[in-house]
Every structure is written in C-alpha cells, then in structure tokens.
Specification:
Blueprint: H1 4-9, H2 12-20, H3 36-73, H4 78-110, E1 130-134, H5 148-154, H6 160-167, H7 177-196, E2 200-202, E3 207-209, H8 210-216, E4 227-229, E5 234-236, H9 240-245, E6 252-254, E7 260-269, E8 288-298, H10 303-320, E9 325-329, E10 341-349, E11 354-363, H11 367-372, E12 375-377, E13 383-385, E14 387-395, H12 396-406, E15 414-415, H13 421-424, E16 428-429
Parallel strand pairs: 2-7, 6-12
Antiparallel strand pairs: 1-9, 3-5, 4-5, 7-8, 8-14, 9-10, 10-11, 11-14, 12-13, 15-16
Helix pairs in contact: 3-4, 5-12, 7-12
C-alpha cells in the first residue's frame, strides 16, 4: 500500500498514480462507491475523528489529574465527575464511529495501486509496451507449423478431454513423456537458479491465509480471481510469491543479510475471472498450472539494479533452452496492481504465430513491505521498509508449450532441447 502519511500530506500522489496508470477510479469495479474526491473526503473525516478522539482523551487525562488534586485538598469533585461521565459517553460514540470509518478507509487505501516509477514508459495499453531486446534469430518454421495443443494430442502426451472429465474446463492432463517433460523442466529450472544464480530453494504451503494474500496485494482487490476454501478461510495460492514473501512478515532484518533470494516451485491456482472466452485452448490460461518463482527481499539502495539481475536470471532459462524470446518494459497502463516497474519475457510461438508472456519480473518498492510490515535495520541502526521483487523463473506450462511449438519436426515429433536431455534421457518425443 502507499504511504498514508505521504498521501495525506500530498494528495497529488494519488492523482499521479491514476494518471500514470491511465486509471480514473481504483474503486470503479468495487462496491465501495468511491471516487477520488469522495476518497479525500473520507480521509478528512478519518483524520478529523482521530483529532477529536485525541482531544477528548487529553481532556479526560487532565480531569483525572485535577480530580486527584481536588480530592487531596478536600475540595468538591462533583462537577469533574459529571464532566468525566459526559466525556466517556462522547468518547464511546466517537470511537464507535471511528471504528467504522477506519475499516472503510483502510479497505479503500488497500485498493489503490502502486505508484509507477519514473522510468516506466508512458502508455495506456499493452500496445504501448516497449521492446528492449530480442533473441538475435527467430527460426523459420513452415507455414504449416502447428499449435502446441495439437502437437501434444497427436503425441499422446496432452489430454484435455480427460482433464475436462475430471475437473471441467481450463485444466490439463499430462501423461507419459509429457509428464516426464514437465517434471524435467521443474528440476532443470530449480537446479539452474540454486546452483548458478545463488537462490535458496523453498517448498512452501499452497494454502495461505487472507492476511498473506493481503500482504502481497491479491486482497482485497482481486478476490474474484482467487480460489477460496470457505470452511477454513484459506486461499489456494495464485503464485508462490504469496507464500515466500510472507516468510518475513512482521520481521526486522539486518542489512547485512540482504538481499535474500528465494526460488520456489509451486502449483498455482487462478479463476481467470477477467479472461472469459480468452485463450480457452491449450496450456496458456489454465485454472491450475506449475511455476518456478523467484523472490527477492532487498534494500531501496539496490532494488532497481536487483530487478535487472532477477530478469537476467529468468532470461537465462530461455537462453539455455534456446527458445526465441524478447524482453518488454510494461507501460504505466499495463502494470500490475502492486508493481512499480515490470519487465515481461515473451517467447515466440510459431504455431500460434504470436508472442506469449512467460514471465513477469517486477519491483514493488516498499508497497508490499508496508502491507506486511517487513523492515530492515540499516548500518546506522535505523529501521526502514525493505523493497520486494519477484518474477517467474519461469512458468512451466507455457515453457512446455513453447518447446512443443519451437522444436516440432515435420513428422510430428518434437526434439528435446540439449540442456534438458540429461534430465529426460531422450532426444526426441515421438508418437
């Protein structure tokens, strides 16, 4: 969340956030019935109540002192007792009112997105994202190159009909060499990030509390996109970012221990509520998928350099597997809710004849840290909020799909990338 004190002292910050994100109203699709002006009115009401409560408490304390002095001197205290009773009643009414306003103000504040960094390209939609770099060559496959779902079905390694029978739409089932390929990709990526990039591997719960979801920004804004276990009050994670970043909630870290770099495999669960009818075929937008996640906890002094390094670590996977890709800087209008700056990695899909996002690498500045109360003690002993980052390192299903499409042969078989062959003990997937 944004710094409430800074927002109070400079309301223009909110207008700047909305302008850079091409957003008129962060509460537009919610039931809060707020706009920018009514938010500031709510904030003023919140601050006014705080001041009124503080004034009554101060007066109450002074009366208590005066009461003690009068009683000690044997003077009459009846008027003070009467005023105290009146103060108690008024204070109780104000505190009850404040409790309601405080809840509404907090929920409204939690729905305000992060402020984009000055280096983020201006723009309203994904069409205005900026391509920073791209693989030197995109291999030319014949015009008859097929999509991954057709390749997988013909090789008998992907079975969407069976998945639909078991779970419904937007699920996939891998079998035989397809299941082996998925497992090999997970092991390969974990090995690269732990052995070559210095990450600590974590295997964390897939079920988390609402507090954890709120900490990374999924709640309250994106409740409809989450799978929730109503009976237990737990949520299935949409990404391992939630579990891993919350490892340090309510902690004060030593600067000398930073940055902390974690890598985690997890299954991920998303309703895809806002993508009805979009990418219904294949592995691109399923309710359940596997992902390797990279998470950093670092200092404000190095966080932008760390974002560049984290992005290079995700790129390394695509380079080793020789998958054509490009790096794209997201414009303000396409940034995720909690991100201050994001680079997307996109792979070329010759069957679909389009670029597909396979990783988003984002810096959140202190937006998540403020929600989770994660601080560090700097070398001067002062406590400050950390900066957090994360990125897919990378999404397994989309990588699986890109291998099928980029390594397909005319006879319908698929070659295995050289870097993966030690994990699979095979060079080709044939029918």
């Amino acid at each position: 969340m944004l710094d409430i004190k800074a927002l109070r002292e400079n309301p223009q910050i909110l207008r700047e956030v909305l302008s850079k994100r091409n957003m008129e109203n962060p509460w537009k699709n919610d039931s809060m019935e707020l706009n920018v002006e009514s938010f500031f009115a709510l904030q003023n009401q919140y601050l006014k109540l705080i001041q009124e409560i503080e004034n009554l408490r101060t007066r109450k304390n002074k009366i208590a002192e005066e009461f003690g002095l009068r009683k000690k001197k044997g003077e009459d205290t009846a008027t003070l007792s009467q005023e105290t009773e009146t103060l108690k009643k008024n204070l109780a009414l104000l505190e009850e009112e404040f409790s309601k306003i405080d809840k509404k103000f907090l929920e409204a504040t939690l729905r305000i997105p992060n402020l984009p960094h000055a280096s983020v390209p201006p723009g309203k939609t994904a069409n205005e994202n900026v391509v920073l770099r791209q693989s030197p060559e995109i291999p030319e496959l014949s015009s008859s190159a097929r999509e991954h779902w057709e390749i997988g079905k013909n090789l008998n390694i992907l079975d969407f009909e069976a998945a639909g029978k078991i779970s419904g739409a937007r699920f996939s089932l891998l079998k035989g060499k397809g299941a082996q390929l998925e497992r090999a990709l997970i092991a390969f990526m974990l090995d690269v990030h732990t052995r070559e990039h210095g990450y600590t591997e974590i295997f964390a719960p897939f079920l988390v509390t609402a507090q954890s979801m709120q900490g990374t920004g999924q709640l309250p804004k994106f409740e409809e996109d989450l799978f929730k276990l109503e009976r237990d009050g737990l949520y299935l994670i949409p990404t391992a970012e939630v579990s891993i970043t919350n490892l340090h909630r309510d902690e004060i870290l030593e600067e000398s221990s930073l940055p902390k770099k974690y890598v985690s495999y997890s299954a991920c669960f998303r309703r895809e509520a806002g993508s009805y009818g979009k990418d219904t075929k294949g592995l691109i937008r399923n309710h359940q998928f596997n992902k390797i996640e990279l998470v950093w906890v670092t200092t404000p002094k190095t966080s932008f350099e760390d974002l560049e390094l984290l992005t290079r670590h995700a790129e390394a996977i695509l380079k080793k597997l020789e998958i054509p890709y490009r790096v794209v800087a997201l414009c303000g209008g396409d940034l995720g809710f909690a991100a201050a700056k994001t680079y997307d990695l996109e792979v070329w899909m010759p069957g679909e004849k389009k670029w597909r996002e396979i990783s988003s690498c984002s810096l959140f500045t202190d937006f998540q840290a403020r929600r989770m109360n994660i601080k560090y003690k700097n070398l001067q002993g002062k406590k400050e909020l950390v900066h957090t980052l994360n990125g897919s390192g990378v999404a397994v299903g989309r990588l699986f799909a890109s291998i099928l499409e980029n390594y397909q042969e005319k006879d319908g078989s698929v070659k295995i990338p050289k870097a993966l062959r030690p994990y699979l003990q095979m060079e080709t997937i044939e029918k």
